[in-house]
Design goal:
This protein has 15 helices and 15 strands. It has 447 residues and is of the alpha/beta class. The protein folds into two domains: 178 residues, Rossmann fold; 239 residues, Dihydrodipicolinate Reductase, domain 2, CATH 3.30.360.
Length: 447
């Protein structure tokens, strides 16, 4: 069934390809509501659906989930009775595509790409959960598609519409944050795969009733169903998720990456890989990214720590009574040191005495701003621009994809910023692209 759906859809797409390439994402009238379909209705998808629907600016026209009709999607289905439901996003677009203006994509990392590419090729605006996609190459293709199809796109790092976004922007513009040379970023919470002993893909479990496992696998090679893959556990596997980088990196390093104009690193070094494994992410890792100078901005070293006990060095500037949270960053500028946590939480200057001394010189953030989901809906209507558009979120995601490769291979990797290839490392370059897509899923890479 999936193969026939794919063939049928792409036969239609091929016949109309010249038309699609000329149709931009539709900009709606001021009083027109956005027709939105939710793809992924459990977990984070449930939260996205609630927030988008709660904007009061949309009509919900479709619900799609590989386990539609089950416990994880029940709340969203109850909230939108009578709305058409689907387990396969390709069928949804075939059946009700003409009624859809925008979609949210909240599925496992490995399936973001085909859903988003198909949606954009049809002129649909897309809200894509973080990380944007699974591989470096997929990010390249998504960035190109955003421009080609002229749609509004937003990555779901919600803090990028929060206080930290506006503060970091204002403090950088005012010269409060300047000449940064070093950033320490850390995520020291426990992860689902911590403690796992894995030396092969699990087998022997039956696919639960009501689960469309073939669609769940999407572009990836066939694997047997396992509770260690679905639901949620996929994040710990190299083949399906992006580990702690993909989960927390977009919430911790997003504003530093954007407003310090970091771009891509020219060197990535694996300093620690505890429990390195060919299948799942390390139990703990320390990865250093070296970013070159950008104009008058000096080179920056970003060192990432994950693992419950793999804590970064405590900053000397922090008062003894102050704690270091499990997730956050320390930003070292020429004159000042900044401490922050994650998502939209604002920065503090440390020690606190310096923050107090500078309070009259710090820019004040004024006005009300749309939240991340509302920002997306307003962008669909042409009223705002998405704050985490793919030209912003794509390079950020690529930084983490490069970090994942260092977690897999270890050692020091040199990256050519012009060719966007690793130097003298064929295996690392293969991982930029990832495994070939399954038969029937190749077409998504040609859109």
């Amino acid at each position: 069934m999936a193969a026939s759906l794919s063939r049928r859809h792409f036969a239609k797409l091929a016949a109309a390809s010249t038309v699609y390439s000329l149709i931009p994402g539709r900009v709606l009238g001021a009083n027109e509501r956005v027709n939105v379909a939710f793809i992924g209705c459990g977990g984070m998808g449930k939260n996205d659906a609630k927030s988008v629907a709660g904007s009061g600016l949309v009509n919900v026209v479709g619900l799609c989930d590989v386990a539609i009709g089950g416990k994880r999607t029940a709340e969203i289905e109850r909230a939108h009775p009578g709305i058409p439901t689907f387990s396969d996003f390709r069928k949804m677009f075939d059946v009700i595509g003409k009624d859809i203006h925008a979609v949210t994509v909240a599925t496992p990392d490995h399936s973001h790409f085909p859903i988003a590419m198909l949606a954009m090729s049809l002129g649909k605006h897309v809200y894509i959960e973080k990380p944007l996609c699974h591989t470096f190459q997929e990010a390249e293709l998504l960035m190109a598609a955003e421009k080609k199809y002229k749609v509004s796109a937003q990555m779901g790092n919600q803090g990028h519409s929060g206080a930290n976004y506006f503060q970091f922007k204002a403090w950088t513009e005012a010269g409060i944050i300047k000449d940064v040379t070093r950033i320490t970023a850390y995520m020291n919470k426990g992860r689902r795969w911590h403690g796992w002993k894995i030396d092969e893909y699990p087998t022997g479990e039956s696919v639960p009733a009501g689960l469309d496992w073939d669609t769940w696998l999407a572009t990836r090679p066939h694997r047997e169903f396992s509770g260690k893959l679905h639901p949620g556990n996929w994040r710990g596997w190299f083949e399906f998720g992006n580990g702690a980088f993909g989960d927390w990196g977009p919430h911790i390093l997003d504003t530093a990456h954007r407003f310090l104009k970091l771009g891509l690193p020219n060197k990535i070094t694996a300093l620690k890989r505890e429990g390195a494994n060919d299948f799942i992410y390390p139990q703990a890792s320390t990865i250093r990214f070296s970013f070159p100078a950008r104009g008058e901005m000096p080179p920056v070293e970003v060192t990432w720590y994950d693992g419950k006990k793999n804590r970064p060095p405590r900053p000397e500037e922090l008062e003894p009574e102050r704690k270091v949270e499990a997730c956050g960053k320390i930003i070292y500028g020429r004159d000042l040191v900044f401490k922050g946590t994650t998502h939209g939480s604002s920065l503090r200057i440390i020690p606190e005495s310096k923050m107090r001394d500078l309070k009259d010189k710090l820019p004040r953030i004024k006005g009300r701003h749309s939240g991340h989901h509302r920002n997306f809906v307003l962008a669909c209507k042409g009223d705002e621009k998405t704050r985490s558009s793919l030209d912003v979120a794509g390079p950020l995601t690529q930084v983490f994809c490069l970090g994942v490769i260092a977690q897999r291979l270890g050692g020091e990797l040199s990256f050519d910023l012009e060719t966007k290839q690793f130097k003298d490392n064929a295996l690392a370059n293969e991982l930029l692209v990832g495994p070939p897509p399954r038969k029937g899923w190749e077409e998504f890479y040609r859109l």
